[in-house]
């Protein structure tokens, strides 16, 4: 359980998060628990709970069930304790006046390595992120800040250093990586780098089956690890209870990764039907990061160059076909936008959700892709991704019904993470 404790100095320097003091629940040190992805839900806090009640909410709970109309959401400390029509009162009450509530969104593929990036993600409605690697364990450090209540979130699932054939500058992340500076190719080398990451406390291992899309001199279809190498990585991680996310644009690499036991395939741009069938069979999830390809193909954003523009135009229709086919086949497709949430980034989860609705998902399916389905793929579905009694109080308030206008998600007016009001943009008062 991650409680707001010592205030929000790091964030407060750059923003006014006015409602936080009213929902500050504890001055005692937060209860630290391991939140490895397979871990059970955190134990209840010993702190005296403040009760936050949201009145007059229309709730989409993330399960796919029909919306609950005009209900009260009761939050005790970091958890939802009830959602229903019974009269409720709390120490803090927010009348949200018929606005809509969805579970906090999940970004299953980020590269956040800064405090400012965490804040941008949170304010876009994202309450959980999975790292797709950071250069020097910044994700592990950010996770600690959230767990200790120094910043309000989002909850971070860290991946540490990319397990990749050539570490480049990331060799500097840990002195024990020095012997692997020039090659991470053999089973012994692959296992060693996985173990250094796990020793540093990562929740996931990130590796690649193919080259990158975002570097003009690489060909994203080209395979870099074969099935045996990928299996060495998966086996080393699995031996310590850690799952693996595998970057793969080209189909040969994606297929090898699925065969080797990847939990999620990242991008999957050129994925074939036979690979998708294998994913369906094995329950492997797909994080297509479609919004990032839009960013390649359009001016501005994280990527802005001629060659990448052409590449994006080529990749987009292939990725679109893959997403449509994957969803039709029943492969779990989840949201991730592959950004650091830097100042130029235009990639956001509500955009990914909107694109999913253009590629064959109903609005409800697309919301589930960002909430319950993503939580399931990340192994955290027992505590977030749906809004029910007992779950973490991770939620977003928006103005309108997203089932009627999916763009409503692009304008978060309140974001609550682990019961902390992290964003409150409209002037109805906390009473
Ligand atoms: Zn990435």
Q: CATH superfamily of the largest domain, called what?
A: Metal-dependent hydrolases
In terms of DSSP E residues, the strand content is 15-25%
Number of strands: 15
Name the helicity range: 25-40%
Task: Please tally the helical runs, counting DSSP H or I stretches of 4 or more residues.
Answer: 13
CATH class of the largest domain: Alpha Beta
CATH architectural group of the largest domain: Alpha-Beta Barrel
**pLDDT < 50 runs, ≥5 residues:** 1-9, 12-44
Largest sheet: 8 strands, mixed
Radius of gyration: 21 Å
Total number of domains: 2
What is the H/E string?
HHEEEEEEHEHEHEHEHEHEHHHHHEEE
Shape: globular
Give structural notes.
- The longest helix has 24 residues.
- The N terminus is likely disordered.
- The protein is an alpha/beta fold and 431 residues long.
- Helix 7 runs parallel beside helix 8 and helix 11 packs across helix 12.
- The protein is globular and about 65 Å long.
- It contains 13 helices and 15 strands.
- It folds into 2 domains: 118 residues, Urease, subunit C, domain 1 (Roll); 273 residues, TIM Barrel (Alpha-Beta Barrel), CATH 3.20.20.140.
- The strands form 3 sheets. Strands 1, 2, 3, 4, 5, 13, 14 and 15 form an 8-stranded mixed sheet that branches. A 4-stranded parallel sheet has the order 9-10-11-12.
- The structure holds zinc ion.
- Zinc ion binds next to loops.
Keywords:
alpha/beta; disordered N terminus; binds zinc ion; Urease, subunit C, domain 1; 431 residues; 2 domains
């Amino acid at each position: 359980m991650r409680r707001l404790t010592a205030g929000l100095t790091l964030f407060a320097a750059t923003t006014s998060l006015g409602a936080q003091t009213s929902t500050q629940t504890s001055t005692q040190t937060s209860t630290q628990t391991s939140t490895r992805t397979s871990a059970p839900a955190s134990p209840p806090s010993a702190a005296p709970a403040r009760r936050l009640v949201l009145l007059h909410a229309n709730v989409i709970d993330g399960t796919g069930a029909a919306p609950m109309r005009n209900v009260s959401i009761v939050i005790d400390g970091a958890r939802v304790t009830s959602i229903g029509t019974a009269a409720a009162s709390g120490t803090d009450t927010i009348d949200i006046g018929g606005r809509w509530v969805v579970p906090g969104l999940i970004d299953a593929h980020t590269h956040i390595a800064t405090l400012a990036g965490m804040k941008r993600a949170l304010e876009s409605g994202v309450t959980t992120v999975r790292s797709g690697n950071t250069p020097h364990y910044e994700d592990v450090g950010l996770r600690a800040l959230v767990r200790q209540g120094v910043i309000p979130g989002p909850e971070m699932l860290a991946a540490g250093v990319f397990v990749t054939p050539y570490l480049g500058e990331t060799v500097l992340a840990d002195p024990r990586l020095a012997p692997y500076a020039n090659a991470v190719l053999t089973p012994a080398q692959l296992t060693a780098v996985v173990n250094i990451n796990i020793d540093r406390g990562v929740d996931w291992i990130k590796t690649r089956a193919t080259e990158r899309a975002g570097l003009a001199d690489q060909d994203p279809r080209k395979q870099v690890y074969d099935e045996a190498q990928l299996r060495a990585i998966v086996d080393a991680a699995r031996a310590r209870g850690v799952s693996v996310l595998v970057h793969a644009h080209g189909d040969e690499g994606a297929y090898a990764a699925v065969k080797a036991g990847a939990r999620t395939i990242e991008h999957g741009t050129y994925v074939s039907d036979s690979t998708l069938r294998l994913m369906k069979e094995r329950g492997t999830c797909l994080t297509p990061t479609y919004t990032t390809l839009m960013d390649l193909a359009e001016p501005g954003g994280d990527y802005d160059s001629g060659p990448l523009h052409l590449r994006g135009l080529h990749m987009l229709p292939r990725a679109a076909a893959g997403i449509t086919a994957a969803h039709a086949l029943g492969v779990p497709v989840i949201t991730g936008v592959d950004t650091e949430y830097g100042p130029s980034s235009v990639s956001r989860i509500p955009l990914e959700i909107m694109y999913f609705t253009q590629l064959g998902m109903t609005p409800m399916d697309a919301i589930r892709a960002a909430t319950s389905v993503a939580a399931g793929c990340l192994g955290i579905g027992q505590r977030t991704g749906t809004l029910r009694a007992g779950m973490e109080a991770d939620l977003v308030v928006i103005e309108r019904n997203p089932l009627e206008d999916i763009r409503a998600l692009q304008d978060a007016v309140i974001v609550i993470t682990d019961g902390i009001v992290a964003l409150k943009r409209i002037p109805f008062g906390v009473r």
